[in-house]
Predict the structure.
Amino acid sequence: MITLMIILHVIVCFLLITLVLIQRGRGSGLVESFAGVESMFGTKTNAFLTRSTSVLSVIFFFTCLGLAILSVRQSKSLLSNVKTVTVPAAQSPVKQETPKANQK
């Protein structure tokens, strides 16, 4: 389930990035370079791009939310499969030094 959600999220991300770059902004955007985009969608290109950006942003929000919920449900420690070895204090490799009295 999480793999499907990640794939959908990545596809939506790429489409959203593409649509934002194609839209006409202050600097005219990339739509000036692609004259075929205007002829493909007709005179309503700006409305189509704005509406599809809105839809993709909502899908992006829900996939982010879904991935967050799925990751919390599947949260596992990276060390859950590692067996811990306990060493008794008497066999500890660290030597414990006792303080010596000052000799004069």
